[in-house]
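worker-03 picked up job from queue 'complexes'. Input manifest follows; two sequence lines, order preserved.
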Amino acid sequence: MRYITGALSVLLVIIGTATVNSRHMVAITGQATAYVEESLAAEEADSQTDAVQTARALDHFWNGHRGYLESVLMHAELDDITVTISDFISAIETGDKDAVHANGRLLCVQFQHLAELELFRIGNIL
Amino acid sequence: MVTSFARTLILYFLIIFSLRVMGKRQLGELQPSELVTSILISDLAAVPMQDLGIPLIQGVVPILTLFSVELLISAFSARSVRIRSFFCGRTSVLIKNGVINQRELKKQRINVTELLEELRLKDVFDPRQVGCAYLETNGTLSVQLMAGERPVTASQMQVDTSTEPELYTTLIAQGRLLSVNLKSCGRDRHWLDAQLRKNNLQSPKDVYLMVIDNRGGVLLVPQEHFDKRSGVKEG
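worker-03 finished. Artifact:
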């Protein structure tokens, strides 16, 4: 009985941690996407200062969660996002609207991909 | 994380199923679930070790999952015959009363040459001498000879074996004193030192192997010292 209880406890802890991780991932990527959209909206409204400020807030937010994300996700995927955020900020600063939109859209897709990666879905499992 | 958890479970049951379908002869000496766990765990542990871009948790979660499932299966197998036969299979009788069970042999996909080879490894050269040959769930063959073919035992001959030693305990192995064994056979350090002195030895470090039987008989092999460079025995 001790072995059964122990093994079931480990499985429950794993399932519980996985569920919390999945929710946390959705929250992080949701917040990051909101920063991108806000920055894009500021750029559309020709408010470059606000756009840069929001993009830098995104960078700060992303780096703040980097440690946690690196402990659960492949590092290569996170590195790609870090590079895109950097390109996004540079594009806003230089006023290259096409690059801003391209990098903004790419970031949204990358964040969505991260969130979906940890969801308990048949598609992911298969 | 949840994906690797689910994937681990799926792969685990898939490999168990495959091994069960493949049959016992593929297994060697491990039970199917043990074999699967050994294969998967060694591989799972290797991947995050080699690739630093993969978080450690991606290796830890599957290993903990396998470990827990294996514990659950072994615990439930001990309680239920059905669960045990599902995961470990059943023992098959390949020879009964000297007659080869061809149907079972075909079912287990073992040809008669392999069966004869296994019998020869057990010093049986004629299947007619076999009372029962079992293919165990771990893939090994157990053979029981016909009553008339079994070696005569001391009890059948009514020979007194009470003076024969039966239990052997290792006291020193490669210079290392096994104090627990010394205590369990009712001896102490004084007795050991006396034995060593009797053999002109100073300490347990000078002993390669020391074994005592339940009648008090002692086997003592002194440590041989070799020249590290030439490999030639000294002294």
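worker-03 released lock.
Chain B has a mean pLDDT of 84.
Residues 110 and 223 of chain B are 48 Å apart (CA to CA).
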